[in-house]
Amino acid sequence: MAGIMTAAACCLFFVSVSMGIKMWKLKRDISSFTDRLLRCLNDMTCGRELERLNEEGDTLWDKVYEKLQKLERIWKRESAENLEEKKKIKSLISDISHQTKTPIANIKLYEEVLLDEGLGTAEAEEFLQKVRIQTEKLDFLLQSMVKMSRLETGVIEVCCMKLPLCGTLLRAVAAIVPKAEKKQIRLSVDCDEDIVVNHDTKWTEEAVFNLLDNAVKYTGRGGSVGISVSVQEIFTKITIRDSGKGIALERQAEIFTRFYREPEVYDQEGIGVGLYLARKIIALQDGYIQVCSEIGKGSDFQIYLPNG
User: Is 65 contained in some domain?
Assistant: First the structure.
């Protein structure tokens, strides 16, 4: 009886050892497979060539690697096609910009000449002024469309550098001063000159100007528009606050879409791309925009730019 128990114990021992060895080999194989897969995926995301295998086999890794190679070829082909498409779009946008710039400039020149010389009747002068306004709108529309197309297609890329934020904001404010003065709107800026943020000064200025333009447009005569800046743990927050008409809660998600115009202000100038461009520009800098508003109580637009 004792001999049978000893034999059973030995058998159990060898089975346990065998299972232990198999589990160790399985863990080793899984670890090796995972390491290979991660190396290949890292090479693909970094644009490096996949390491070529000397032999073709029928293991799971061989099959996975074959699929990765096919994916790499598809990826490269599509990247080359996208690059070529961007070149074509860039050329098309440049052509449109160039071809429209001269005719619009000539129209403006003819308008100035006719206004200086006088047309003899008040009605003719009025019509000419209307033509001038529509020409300005057409020029603004084309410039906005070109900017939007360049940003969307990646033709223009933001170039972020650690620079003082105050100068960027002051240039945006300076550009909006003429419109604000016409409506006697008070402008204010509260920004510490020592605040440095990693941002693209040109495009951030464009985004802030678009938000300021929107604020001035929908703020009544004698109102106020102010900019304040606060440095948080992860982001620097730029708040643009106005005393305008406010935005209904159900419309606040729509205002950043292309060509959106609020129904009750549809007679105001503009084409509805300013806020869309602002959000796009900030998103390209790994930031985001929020809006807080109530009808009749003005609006707060908050730009968040990463500190890093």
Answer: no
pTM of the prediction? 0.60
Instruction: Give the per-residue pLDDT at 154.
Output: 65
Q: What is the pLDDT of residue 42?
A: 78
Residue that terminates a domain, selected from 152, 171, 205: 152
Residue 67's SS3 state is helix
In angstroms, the CA 246 to CA 258 distance is 20
How far is residue 69's CA from residue 49's CA, in Å, rounded to a whole number? 10
Q: Is residue 272 part of a domain?
A: yes
How far apart (Å, rounded) are the C-alpha atoms in residues 204 and 195? Answer: 15
Instruction: State mean pLDDT over 88-95.
Output: 66
Shared domain for 171 and 249, answered yes or no, is: yes
Choose between 243 and 266: higher pLDDT.
243
Task: Measure the CA dihedral 99/102/104/108, to 10°.
Answer: 180
